[in-house]
Design brief:
Elements lengths: L5 H66 L2 H8 L4 H17 L5 E5 L4 E5 L10 E2 L8 H9 L3 E8 L4 E12 L2 E11 H9 L6 E6 L5 E3 L3 H9 L16 H15 L6 E7 L2 E10 L4 E7 L1 H5 L5 H41 L14 H55 L3 H7 L3 E6 L7 E7 L4 E8 L3 H22 L4 H15 L18 E8 L3 E7 L3 E4 L7 E3 L20 E4 L5 E5 L2 H4 L1 E2 L4 E2 L2 H10 L5 H16 L8 E7 L6
Antiparallel strand pairs: 1-2, 1-6, 2-3, 4-5, 5-6, 7-8, 7-11, 9-10, 10-11, 12-23, 13-14, 14-15, 15-16, 16-19, 17-18, 17-20, 20-23, 21-22
Length: 664
């Protein structure tokens, strides 16, 4: 996978954006869900408290109403006035039995205040006689005396009747006769059934607790707490809701909210509280009829926890994934794939396939880009085709022109070679010799000559200005002038020939003193020349910036005979410069060398330096024992080895011979 491609980077960018947006969205969703869960839980607690109030007060009101009706019965009041009267007694017990069957659990009680006889009837044993007589000092009978003393109309009381073995919420109604309390009537609701109906009937998400204004538990899902309170006759020691609250701050909050409800400052209180180690949303209502407060505790995690939002969260994640997939597919189809197709086509053009045309099936930016690409490819194809034709045409013209130039140069080479001494002529005058003549181009500016006369011959080695054709013209002109001067002056005085040749060249090239420069700018041409008159017993040497090297028989080192430091034909060359002759004895076997500076300037070797005089001198000294032809071959090989792959820098001419009897 190419991480640098636009497609991969686009996918990674989209995934990064998806993850960033997804994380932010999930966090925002969880925050909103938590708020919704809290608000819903609080609302649920309030509604549940109201519902529980109605569920409680519905049957209680019915039982209270029925008990009050029972207490208001004339038969029972007559029964209280004359308990010993058989008629009143029968009527009262019949009335009591009639009401008993109407109560929810078909039980009721009746106490005659005068005799403190306690009558109780239920389906198993209808009330026909007192069950027992209440005693003022008995702890289990205290409820009666307190109710008779405190209850003016009716009261609800959670109590247990040990002798009867029941735990009930009792409805105590005072029986009055002319405003005087003559008895107590009521019924009871079995506490277990009450809790099951009102408290334990609640689901796990909400529990209902009933407390009195002091916070004493009147109803609680825990049977243990209710049983404790039912058995605890000392109200100050009964269990309260405050004892179940985890913190003092929670207890203060609960006390404040209960006080507000009891005082009537608020009809409904909502708050958060921690009870028995768990955090709840609480809603409280005051039931004034029975002087109780119903409190609903809601666990938000059970009502609507974050787990409830998981399907929504899953749908949200799935919708984001689908969105990303659709965006990626559309991006790939609309942008990336067309760009990839353009990229492939560009590579085809770069490889030389210019005949590519892409379909244009849209009119947006990609379509316009594709259309532009097609136009570019067509333009390149047109230019390329025309350029190839033009190149072929120009190449053909250049080939023909080059062929003509090469033909001309070859012809010029033949002409230049024809002006050089033929090998046979040289061998006739100097049998033991070699000539290394290597123009840098097809023709060059170097030349050599051998002009014999009746006493010997004149050798000349020249180096004209320039290379190639200009040099060749100069060399041919110089050779012609030399021949004319030798024919005119003879070859006995090389210095005179140099001086005359200097003036002839200056006149020929219009480079005399005071002469204007030719059209096209300043030209300054000339040559360096070495002339050596070879006689049977001596040589006469004159040089214009070219030397003569000699190595006599038995000598170990070369002798350098420098020429005059004055060139011929240049503007700066003096026409009256007095060249000098150097006459040297010539012993048989003496080796003589004339050469131009091309061999000295040829660069090569490890550091690309020139061949140099010292290297040439050592080489010639090492070759002195060889025949001259072998010396020429060895010198050519040494020069080639030193030059290596470097181009030839200048025309090279070196002529070497060993003295001896010349052929006539």
């Amino acid at each position: 996978m190419n991480l640098g491609s636009l497609k991969v980077r686009s996918i990674l960018t989209i995934l990064s954006i998806y993850l960033a947006v997804g994380v932010v969205t999930v966090l925002a969703f969880l925050w909103a869900a938590q708020g919704i869960s809290g608000a819903f839980g609080q609302r649920f607690a309030e509604k549940n408290a109201q519902l529980e109030k109605e569920r409680l007060m519905g049957p209680v009101r019915r039982e209270v109403a029925l008990a009050r009706k029972l207490a208001d019965s004339a038969a029972l009041r007559g029964f209280c006035r004359a308990e010993g009267d058989p008629g009143a007694r029968a009527a009262g017990l019949a009335e009591l039995e009639s009401f008993r069957r109407a109560f929810a659990d078909q039980s009721c009680f009746f106490v005659v205040a005068r005799s403190r006889h306690y009558y109780f009837g239920d389906p198993a044993a209808p009330a026909r006689a007192p069950r027992y007589t209440l005693e003022a000092g008995a702890v289990n009978d205290r409820w009666y005396f307190e109710a008779l003393d405190k209850v003016d109309d009716f009261a609800l009381h959670v109590d247990s009747s040990v002798p009867l073995g029941v735990l009930k919420v009792w409805v105590n109604v005072a029986v009055k006769d002319g405003g005087r309390k003559v008895g107590l009537a009521g019924t009871g609701v079995d506490l277990s059934a009450f809790l099951k109906a009102l408290v334990q009937g609640s689901d796990r998400s909400a529990q209902t607790i009933m407390v009195d204004p002091k916070g004493v538990l009147q109803a609680h899902p825990s049977i243990r707490y209710m049983d404790f309170n039912a058995r605890m006759k000392d109200e100050s020691r009964r269990m309260t809701l405050y004892q179940l609250v985890d913190s003092e701050a929670g207890r203060s909050l609960l006390r404040e909210r209960l006080d507000r409800l009891v005082k009537g400052d608020s009809a409904l209180e909502s708050f958060q509280i921690s009870v028995e180690g768990r955090r709840y949303l609480a809603a409280a209502l005051f039931i004034r009829e029975i002087d109780w407060v119903t409190i609903t505790l809601v666990d938000p995690s059970q009502v609507m926890g974050l787990r409830s939002f998981l399907p929504i969260l899953a749908l949200l994640a799935l919708s984001l994934l689908v969105t990303i997939a659709l965006v990626s597919w559309l991006l790939n189809r609309m942008v990336l794939e067309p760009l990839a197709r353009l990229t492939r086509s560009s590579r085809e053009i770069a490889a030389g396939n210019y005949g590519i045309t892409l379909p244009v099936d849209r009119d947006d930016e990609i379509g316009r880009l594709t259309r532009t690409f097609n136009h570019m490819a067509a333009t390149i194809l047109d230019y390329t085709s025309n350029l190839e034709g033009l190149v072929e045409e120009r190449t053909l013209a250049l080939t023909q022109s080059n062929r003509k130039i090469l033909d001309s140069l070859a012809y010029a080479h033949l002409i230049q070679e024809s002006m050089l001494p033929k090998p046979a002529d040289l061998s006739r005058h100097i049998p033991d010799h070699f000539v290394l003549f290597r123009p840098r181009d097809i023709v060059g500016g170097d030349f050599y000559a051998c002009l014999p006369d009746e006493r010997g011959f004149l050798l000349a080695v020249g180096d004209c200005t320039g290379h190639g054709v200009p040099g060749a013209f100069m060399s041919m002109s110089a050779g012609a002038i030399l021949s004319q001067l030798v024919a005119k002056l003879g070859s006995a005085d090389p210095a005179l020939i140099l001086r005359e040749m200097n003036g002839a060249l200056k006149r020929l090239l219009h480079q005399g003193n005071g002469e204007p420069a030719p059209r096209g700018g300043i030209m300054d041409n000339g040559l360096d020349l070495a002339l050596l008159k070879v006689l049977p017993d001596r040589v006469v040497f004159a040089g214009a910036r070219l030397p003569l090297w000699t190595l006599g028989p038995g000598e170990e080192e070369l002798t350098v005979h420098a020429g005059d430091s004055h060139s011929l034909g240049y503007r700066r060359s003096r026409e009256d410069f007095p060249f000098r002759n150097q006459e040297l004895p010539l012993a048989p076997g003496t080796v003589l060398y004339l050469f131009t500076d091309g061999i000295l300037d040829q660069h090569g070797g490890k550091f690309s330096f020139g061949f140099g005089r010292r290297r040439l001198g050592r080489l010639l000294q090492d070759l002195r024992g060889l025949p001259m032809a072998a010396q020429g071959e060895a010198l050519a090989q040494a020069l080639a080895d030193y030059q290596g792959g470097n181009p030839q820098r200048d025309d090279i001419t070196i002529l070497g011979f060993r003295s001896g009897p010349a052929e006539e």
